[in-house]
Amino acid sequence: MRFEALNRLWETVHETSHDFRASTDVFPIVDTEKLSVSLNLREKGGASGRSNRPVPSAQSLDETEQGIVAWVEEEKKASYQVLEDQFQTFDGRLRNLDFEGQFGMIRQANASSLSDFKAEVASGVDELHGLRRNLKIAEDEMADFKAKHNLQRAAKVSSKAAWSFKIALIVFLVLVEMVMNGSFLAKGSEQGIVGGVTEAAAFAFLNIGAALMFSFFCVRFLVHRSFFLKFLGLLGLIAYVVVALSINIALAHYREVSATILTGAGAEVMQRLKTAPLGLQELNSWMLFAVGLMFSLFAFIDGCYLTDPYPGFAGVQKRLDAARVNYIDRKLDLIDDLRDIRDDHNGKIEGIIRDLSMRRRETAAIIAHRARTAGLFGEHQNHLERTANTLLTIYRDANRAARSEPEPAYFAAPFRLERLTPVIHTNEEWDDKVLGERIQAAQAELGEQIKRIGAEFESAIEKYHKLDNLFPESTIGATQAA
Predict the structure, then answer these.
(1) Nearest to 296 by CA among 342, 356, 249, 364
(2) For 221, phi and psi rounded to 5 degrees?
(3) Farthest CA pair distance, the chain
(4) Contact residues for 361 (Cβ-Cβ < 8 A; gap 6+)
(5) What is the mean pLDDT of the chain?
(6) What are residue 156's DSSP bridge partners?
(7) CA distances (Å), 204 to each of 170, 177, 228, 244, in order?
(8) Distances (CA, A) of 404 to 61, 350, 397, 400
(9) 187: Cα within 13 Å, side-chain hemisphere
(10) Distance CA 394, CA 68 (A)
(11) What's the CA gap between 47 and 345, in Å, rounded?
């Protein structure tokens, strides 16, 4: 025979190690032909027939037939065990759905979530209460300050942009005056332009600095309600005029003297200021005097408008603005936090509502799958009965063909497999109608929970706004940004 070894290998590869057909069914189909070969039914049937066994008067199955029945009964028991394992799996899945536990957790979550939200609201109210009280104190301070000083206007508080511009203007004035004075003083300086700029920087800082000091700390008292402070402000204004004229006329004299002598310029300037303070000989000196005085005046005016001209008014306004910003910003933050908590809560509730519907559908699917599996077991028992009869027929046909005596009468009787009835425990299972009603009730309760949280959110906003009624805002005017 050609390729005998190869044919044996091919048969070995294609030969299965069991007597079932390849299948994905829970209860596999028995390969009857394969099983008959495994049990040597034809050979055994022929051997028994030639010996006329079983005898014609036999009433019970012989050894081979009993082996067939025993194999079928064993397969039935094994299949029933598979069925029981499947039932346990289904029961475990149904228990894991735990509707009763879910309903209890929903009730508990509804109560605790509402309490937690109310606690968050109460915490926010307490925090805002302190901030609103601080704002009320600042408002009262502003009202008392305006009443005490008979002020009817709003305080002039420079914005950050305006403040930056005014500071930049002062720096610009210092730099420009320093450069211009340096070009004049460099001609008489031993160090040239470097020495001239250095001396000019000292004069520029003195000129601009004096103007700022007098405008910010002295002249502002001219608008004060107190006559004594007004008098001090007037003295400050006179002092500023004297200092500004003195600094700039001294600078002009220094420019003339430094251009003619190398040493003792300072003493010569002091002598000129005593004898002839206005005795400048050159036009450039008068120009230097005028430019320095003009820059001093610009710095003086800029210093007056760095803040509100009335002493102390801007400080009170800033404290009020800071308290108002802290209160309003924190109130908005708390409302945003509550909105986030509400939205997160509602999102989870909606997910739970969807999950309950999915669990109900999963329950129905598990129960239906279990019923189908039980039906498959019933069909499998029918299949085993047919398999047993087929195997017995193969054996008996071989036996008949080899017999010389009549066959036993029971050969004509078919085999009847005693059926096993699956037991399904449904004591702890939910009736679908009852389960649907409970789920609808739970979903309705969750929907009401969303409404309650929404109502608490609106109530929280009202509580926050009621703090404005508890601490009514004084009539103090609006903040004006200069």
Answers:
(1) 249
(2) -70, -5
(3) 170
(4) none
(5) 76
(6) 480
(7) 11, 6, 32, 11
(8) 19, 82, 13, 8
(9) 12
(10) 11
(11) 81
**Residue 345 carries which side chain, given as an amino acid letter?**
H
Contact 42, 398 (CB under 8 A): yes
Tokens read off for 268: 């010569």
Among candidate residues 467, 359, 390, the one with its CA nearest the CA of residue 93: 359
Alpha-carbon distance of 309 to 169, in angstroms, equals 19
Angle of CA points 278, 282, 285, to nearest 5°: 70
Which helix (H) or strand (E) element contains residue 480? strand 480-481
What are φ and ψ of residue 431, in 5° steps? -70, 135
Bridge pairing between strands 156-157 and 480-481 = parallel
C-beta of residue 162 within 8 angstroms of C-beta of residue 481: yes
What angle (nearest 5°) sits at the alpha carbon of residue 436, between those of residues 430 and 441?
Answer: 115
HSE of 436, CA atoms in CB hemisphere, 13 A = 5
Q: Is 183 helix (H, G, I), strand (E, B) or coil?
A: helix
Residue type, 465: H
Asked whether the beta carbons of 349 and 449 are under 8 A apart, the reply is yes
Note the helical H segments in 149-226: 160-185, 192-217
Alpha-carbon distance of 150 to 144, in angstroms, equals: 10
Q: What six digits make up the tokens of 373?
A: 């599996």
| 20 phi and psi angles, rounded to 5 deg | -120, 150
Q: Which residue has the tokens 């012989």?
A: 62
Contacts of residue 403, Cβ cutoff 8 Å, sequence gap at least 6:
49, 50, 52
Question: Whose CA is closest to 53, among 394, 39, 44, 392?
Answer: 44
Task: Please write the tens of the pLDDT for every residue from 198-219.
Answer: 766 777 777 777 777 777 677 6
Q: HSE on the CB side for 137, CA within 13 Å? A: 10
Q: DSSP for 32-85, please give it.
A: HHHHHHHTTHHHHHHHHHHTT-S-TT--S--HHHHHHHHHHHHHHHHHHHHHHH
Q: How many helices (DSSP H) and strands (DSSP E) are in the chain?
A: 12, 2
From residue 456, alpha-carbon distances to 130, 342, 462 in Å are: 22, 9, 10
Report the candidate in 175, 206, 211, 178 with the shortest Cα–Cα distance to residue 288: 178
What's the chain's length in residues? 482
C-alpha span between 42 and 38 (Å, rounded): 10
Query: What does the pLDDT look like over 14-32, one tens digit per residue?
Result: 343 334 343 446 788 888 8
Peptide bond into 54 cis (omega under 30): yes
Residue 20: helix, strand or coil by DSSP?
Answer: strand
Whether this prediction's pTM lies above 0.70 is answered by: no
Residue type, 152: Q
Q: Which helix (H) or strand (E) is 126 found in, with range?
A: helix 99-148
Rounded distance between C-alpha atoms, residue 251 and residue 207, angstroms: 10
Cross-strand partners of 481: 157
Segment 61-101, tens digit of pLDDT: 999 999 999 999 999 999 999 999 988 888 888 878 777 77
